[in-house]
């Protein structure tokens, strides 16, 4: 109970902190518009206008992932610069309780990107928001937030160890977009990518959202997304503990 | 098992390894702390004094679990700082000077709620403790404002640590707020909290600390009460000269004068303040002025040594 409370308060306050950054707000306004535009023109060019909504959902999910990845990497780097990384790592709780709210908050604010992409698609390009399973779509969105937040924790554990967290975070954007089938169907990718895609929570989150949009068995995908997310959480917790110790040995919690 | 000592450190050493460049990496090793032994009693206010780069912050970070020592051991209330971090962290607080260490886009109330939660303060106690704390730092009524521009030093009071590390807390703080801070620190120590304070300000260390360790070059050069340290400069006399444009050759010449033990120069804008310590029985003032002939001088003064002079003597001898 106490753990849940700590996670919840941490996530709410971190999201509040993120939402007050002029940079984050500007990015949140512009990026979904760009994503929606890309999705629309790609699919129009591909002569598949009936898949526009699917494309918009995929583009929105790309926004969630970008938020988790750059948000977690950026947040940890920023805290390192501000000196707060040392202060929060110094608290007597398991580092997961300190870092998970950080990545969960980026997933929550990233969820806004999904909604905004759909809205821009509706307002600017007239894509009707006609969901096959509206209720399941809500559940899939929540599963995506949870799954991506936990996946973010696994990545964040390495950001705690490495001083140049940004350098690692930024290039991971595109491979995950591609591998998870957020915009391009996994079936068109080379066969060797399939096993990688299968173990990424993002793949199943994207699939659940797509199935809720156009129809399909949403709940198994939600279940797999959450299960893989939990594996990331456990792995992230173990790594975080070990990386925290290594960071103390290598003196990388602070910049100076 | 809790110890009677707040802090016990034996043979603490810390080396930093840096690497620059990718193709032809250049590796450097810096020995920041080279074997520190110290014990601090419960409720003691202990000062760490030393020039920049002396190893003060590294020592504090090894004691508060942020850095793993390269060698040696340290215990806080009997708990090992490397292996029993959670036990140690439950008992300590850490404040560092400057403008960092708080979430400035959140209000004071949100910052305090967040850290109260991370320090495991029971929810039913949080409201009361936060209100007390806001009252203590004079922020009642302003708790909803964002932290940008606030004073600091409140977070660690939330969980009432047994051992509080203050790393140059008064840096960049105006004199009135610094006095307020000293009063708070003295109050904490009087209430039984062990405080380890690093500072550049001699007066602050003199006023507050029960004992002071002077660190230089990663080693403790002197350890004692302020009075004991001051006595290091006993038998000395200090000549202070305000001058303009003193060349290095003149300073070297001063160092070579018979009876001179220590010479330091402090730049104060266009003015340089020369401090020359000598054996008390040797009157060096005449010789000093002779060496400075032809240089524009201001006030010349001869006085008894202070703690600062003792500090300069200790660091200079290191």
Structural account:
- The complex is a heterodimer of chains A (256) and B (318).
- Chain A is mainly alpha-helical and 256 residues long.
- Chain A has one domain (2-250).
- Chain A has eleven helices and no strands.
- Chain A has helices at residues 2-19, 22-45, 52-82, 84-89, 95-125, 134-161, 165-169, 173-179, 194-198, 201-214, 218-250.
- In chain A, helix 3 packs antiparallel against helix 5 (95-125), helix 5 crosses helix 6 and helix 6 (134-161) runs antiparallel to helix 10.
- The radius of gyration of chain A is 18 Å and the shape is globular.
- By secondary structure, chain B is of the alpha/beta class.
- Chain B is 30% helix and 34% strand.
- Chain B has helices at 56-63, 85-91, 108-118, 123-136, 175-190, 202-208, 226-230, 248-255, 285-291, 307-317, and strands at residues 5-20, 26-41, 45-49, 71-76, 79-80, 92-96, 163-167, 194-199, 211-216, 219-224, 236-244, 260-268, 271-279, 296-303.
- In chain B, the strands form three sheets. Chain B has a six-stranded mixed beta sheet, sandwiched between helices. A four-stranded antiparallel beta sheet of chain B has the order 2-1-4-5.
- The A-B interface holds A 2, 5-6, 9-10, 13, 16-17, 20-21, 82-84, 86-93, 97-98, 245, 248-249, 251, 253-254 and B 16, 64-68, 86, 89-90, 92, 94, 96, 98, 100-103, 105-106, 110, 113-115, 117-120, 123, 146, 155.
Briefly characterize the structure.
Chain A is mainly α and 256 residues long.
């Amino acid at each position: 109970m106490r753990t849940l409370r700590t996670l919840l308060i941490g996530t709410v306050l971190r999201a509040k902190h993120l939402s007050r950054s002029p940079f984050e707000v500007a990015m949140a306004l512009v990026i979904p518009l760009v994503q929606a535009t890309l999705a629309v023109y790609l699919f129009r060019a591909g002569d598949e206008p009936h898949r526009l909504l699917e494309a918009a959902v995929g583009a929105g999910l790309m926004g969630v992932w970008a938020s988790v990845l750059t948000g977690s990497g950026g947040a940890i780097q920023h805290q390192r610069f501000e000196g707060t990384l040392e202060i929060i790592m110094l608290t007597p709780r398991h580092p997961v309780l300190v870092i998970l709210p950080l990545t969960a908050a980026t997933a929550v604010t990233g969820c806004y990107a999904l909604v905004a992409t759909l809205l821009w698609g509706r307002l600017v390009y007239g894509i009707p928001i006609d969901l096959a399973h509206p209720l399941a779509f809500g559940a899939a969105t929540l599963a995506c937030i949870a799954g991506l937040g936990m996946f973010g924790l696994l990545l964040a554990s390495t950001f705690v160890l490495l001083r140049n967290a940004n350098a690692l975070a930024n290039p991971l954007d595109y491979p995950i977009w591609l591998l998870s089938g957020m915009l391009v169907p996994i079936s068109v990718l080379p066969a060797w990518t399939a096993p990688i895609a299968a173990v990424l929570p993002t793949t199943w989150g994207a699939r659940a959202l797509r199935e809720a949009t156009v129809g399909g068995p949403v709940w198994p995908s939600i279940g797999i997304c959450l299960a893989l997310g939990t594996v990331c959480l456990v792995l992230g917790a173990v790594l975080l503990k070990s990386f925290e110790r290594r960071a103390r040995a290598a003196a990388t919690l602070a910049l100076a | 098992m809790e110890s009677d000592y707040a802090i016990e450190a034996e043979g603490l050493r810390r080396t930093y390894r840096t690497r620059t460049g990718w193709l032809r990496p250049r590796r450097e090793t810096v020995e920041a702390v080279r074997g520190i032994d110290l014990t601090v009693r419960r409720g003691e206010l202990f000062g760490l004094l030393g020039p920049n780069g002396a190893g003060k912050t590294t020592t504090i970070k090894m004691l508060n679990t942020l850095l793993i020592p390269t060698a040696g051991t340290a215990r806080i209330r009997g708990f090992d700082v490397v292996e029993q971090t959670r036990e140690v962290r439950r008992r300590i607080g850490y404040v560092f000077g400057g403008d960092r260490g708080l979430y400035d886009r959140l209000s004071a109330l949100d910052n305090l709620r967040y850290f109260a939660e991370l320090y495991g303060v029971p929810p039913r106690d949080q409201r009361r403790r936060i209100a007390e704390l806001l009252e203590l730092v004079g922020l009642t009524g302003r708790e909803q404002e964002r932290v940008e521009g606030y004073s600091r030093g409140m977070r660690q009071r939330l969980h009432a640590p047994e051992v509080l590390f203050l790393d140059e807390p008064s840096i960049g703080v105006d004199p009135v707020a610094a006095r307020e801070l000293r009063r708070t620190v003295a109050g904490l120590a009087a209430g039984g909290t062990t405080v380890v304070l690093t500072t550049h300000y001699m007066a602050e260390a003199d006023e507050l600390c029960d004992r002071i360790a002077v660190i230089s070059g990663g080693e403790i050069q002197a350890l004692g009460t302020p009075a004991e340290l001051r006595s290091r400069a006993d038998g000395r006399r200090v000549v202070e000269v305000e001058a303009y444009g003193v060349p290095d050759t003149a300073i070297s010449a001063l160092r070579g004068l018979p009876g001179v033990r220590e010479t330091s120069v402090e730049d104060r804008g266009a003015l340089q303040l020369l401090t020359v310590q000598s054996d008390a029985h040797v009157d060096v003032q005449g010789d000093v002025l002779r060496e400075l002939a032809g240089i524009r001088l201001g006030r010349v003064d001869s006085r008894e040594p202070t703690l600062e002079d003792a500090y300069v003597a200790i660091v200079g001898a290191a």
